[in-house]
Amino acid sequence: MATAGGNGRTLEQQVQSLFALRGFTLLSYKEFSKGHVAGKYIVTNVPYRTIYGTQGKTEFLVVDADRKIRVECKWQQCSGSVDEKYPYLILNCMDMPEAEIIILLDGGGYKQAAKDWLVKAARDGVGGKGMLKNVRVLSLSEFISWVNKEWPRK
Fold this sequence. Notes:
Blueprint: H1 4-20, E1 25-28, H2 29-32, E2 40-49, E3 55-64, E4 67-75, H3 86-95, E5 100-106, H4 112-124, E6 134-138, H5 140-150
Parallel strand pairs: 1-2, 4-5, 5-6
Antiparallel strand pairs: 2-3, 3-4
């Protein structure tokens, strides 16, 4: 029986492969923070300050030219509590330093109402505050299409 963590890692490997095919260099945040010349990077385990004032980590930061896009991977294959964490995720997105954030959501085990809430909150913000960032919720197939459009293979 596969674990939730194992399935999540499979999703993360797909993200890494997509960007590797487009010439991105995979680096840990520790390596990236030492400073690098211009290039295309997919950075792993990128820290941020949570709404609780503690350190959280995001799976990826896509770095290309003047663009930095944070990618949060959420895989939920069976019903459980992951979708109950969506409000926490959205509130954290509002405080993350990047203007572009993608929540990669797949697995089909989340409650549809929870996904609908997440999509609306990403688009409109929480409690009418408005979202000042470009936050998108994409399935794996939508994410692949987005990557293909943004960085077509040569």
